[in-house]
Input
Amino acid sequence: MRWNVRLMGALSSFAFAVQTATAMVPFSFSTGNPNGLIATASRPASTGKMEIESADDFVLGDGLTSIDHVTFTGLLTGGVMLSDIARVRIEIYRVFPKDSDTTRTPNVPTRTNSPSDVALQEADSADASLSFSASILSASFTANNSVLNGINKSPNQTTGGEGAVTGQEVLFDVVLDPAFSLPSDHYFFIPQVEVTGGEFFWLSAPKPIVSPGTPFLPDLQSWIRNEDLDPDWLRIGTDIVGGTTPPTFNATFSLQGQVLADLSLAKQAPQTVAARDPFAYTLDVSNAAVSSTATNVVVTDTLPPGVLLKSATGVGWTCVESPPGTVKCTLASLAVGTIASEITLLVAPQFAGLFTNTATVNADQLDPNPEDNSASAVTKVGVAAPAMGHFSLAALGALLIGMGVVSLRATRHGFTARGRAQRPTPH
Output
């Protein structure tokens, strides 16, 4: 939402800067605990092994979200130990047809509701854009079915799966640095794990999501592809497992972070004003997030020495002066869009000069782009000429008249204004 905030003053120049909010609006999402129905391979390419990507979806509503912490649960098979984990990779895809070539001929039954052709964001322990830890939840856990090698192009996509698989149940805890900043949209989450001497399988979660998970709609089923199928995807339940009534699956993961509001400031002010003359100061407060409403928006203005506040008002804003010289205006919420609203500060100057005033704006949400949240201007307040009374004006008039009479007499007697005699002009 874009608010037009008007500040009026006879003296001040306001330099606004946005600071990161001290309060945070948390975000969390979970599909719940593993249900043991299926386990699917998901790994980066490595020596002798092609890349496999397993994907499950989630939805972000109400705007820009910063995700800095994720977890997922899977199996380590083949006697693999935690020390054999060589690499972890996280990818975020949008839903087809975004980030996809819609004109090519696919090699799968459908592309509807699949992940897009290419990733939107990614992080990798190999380049230190994420760090991870792994812990064993169970020394032995069995999934009833699995997918590793049976990822085939149509019409050979349905294999029924590759049977039960048993391994150590492992929880992966990942910190993303930098965090993923994602606008409101529908996404797929893809974790990949490289291990030495065995395999990693991502464990399924209940569908529909149940407690302690976070239900949402529409909840799409999980998908998978390998390098041979890329850029197409197969539905793990409907396409690969198949059957008269194909099952559908979710996968076990969680996301944590914070909701963001992208606040920014811009303003206009005159460069110079005369003393005692009030001037208009216009400030635009904008929330450029896709749909994230900023809550508890606070504009704080500390007046410079020599400026006294006369009044502070604003449509929709509540303004108070506390402590003296510091004005705080609050707004309950600032949605995305444009609404005309004004904050007017009337101030009284006590002397002339150049003045710089600093103000801040924040909200409960963190701001992902603080660099666009400052604006400044300098206004020079001039010195007024002293006012003249009636006597002074009369005296000035008499003086000017007297000077005119003297000049006229001097000219008549042959003298210039400098007092020298004029020479006759020859005829």
Observations:
- Residues 99 and 122 are 14 Å apart (CA to CA).
